[in-house]
Amino acid sequence: MNTGNRKIKLGRRSGLFSILMLIFLSSTLAGCGGSNQATPGDGENAVAKGDVTLVLGAYSVAKDALQDILPAFKAEWKSKTGQTVAFQESYEASGTQTRSIIGGFEADVTLLALQGDMEKLVKAGLVAPEWKQAAHNGMVTRSIVVLGTRAGNPLGIKDFEDLTKPGVKVLYPNPKTSGGAQWDINAIYGAGLKKSEAATGTKDPAAAKKFLEDVHRNIESMDKSGRASMAAFEYGVGDVIVTYENELLARIAQGVQYDIVVPPSTILIENPVAVVGRNADRHGVSEVAQAFVQYLYSDEAQKLFAKHGFRPVSDELSAQMQADYPQPPELFTIDYLGGWDKVKETLYSKRGIWYQVLAGK
Questions:
Q1: pTM attached to this predicted model
Q2: Domain residue extents for the chain
């Protein structure tokens, strides 16, 4: 197993956010960044000393929870093996993180927002095709898409349909870079399908597209990640944000005054984790990387995720915490939309519904 003295090849940051927002992200939302971070674009950082160093590339929304989880894993691994683990960490929008890893950022473990992003790493030969054979099909966190409003919900927002009203300013991220944005758009499109199904007895893709168009007409800002979108909302941009439930719960826990609106029809979010096998094998850290991924499914780690607003993947823990999480009457999964392969073709291909909405077709 390697020592902690290896240098990490880093990719390039695609910074599209303003300096003011970056300052906000680093000081207010980024949490306890620490000196072990390896952020694409920073150059070759000095690696923190340890018996073994793991490089973690994660989607931005998971950062705060991982600031609690990493020390807990290090303590457990130290007690079991006597080894000290150091982490280098990179947090980006899921699509950006995926491209960084494919482009040469040598992450050993990755947590991403989308199954499709993980499949891109499989296609690149970085992650084993069997990654979904892990516990819970390789999914390590859950959430739902909700609406965040200013304190007191001054516009009386109750559902996605309210986002179509004239004058309502809406935020969600850009699906070209953000996995969270794809979940947001999937939720809106799926709610449109549910609405058409209730009216006619069948799913009507044309009606769902029209519903998505009506919401998108009120978009005030599309930032590169869910975390950047949350920062913009924090600075007063927009009236309503479409986002992960856990993002809002985390901000409310820190004293920020928002209201959470759970739409009656919304989507269950599931986020994957995997060892980036080609990198971990080359670095000689496969054993500790696999152990870290397994630890993320432990009750201890899942409770720490829940502390930061995520829903547990364990059915037993979910049952214990059911009172803490509202259950939308028409909660649907990606399968309601036909699964990820169909969603990528229907919504996000070059001729897909999302690009037709952007083009106004």
A1: 0.82
A2: 19-141+271-320, 143-268+326-359
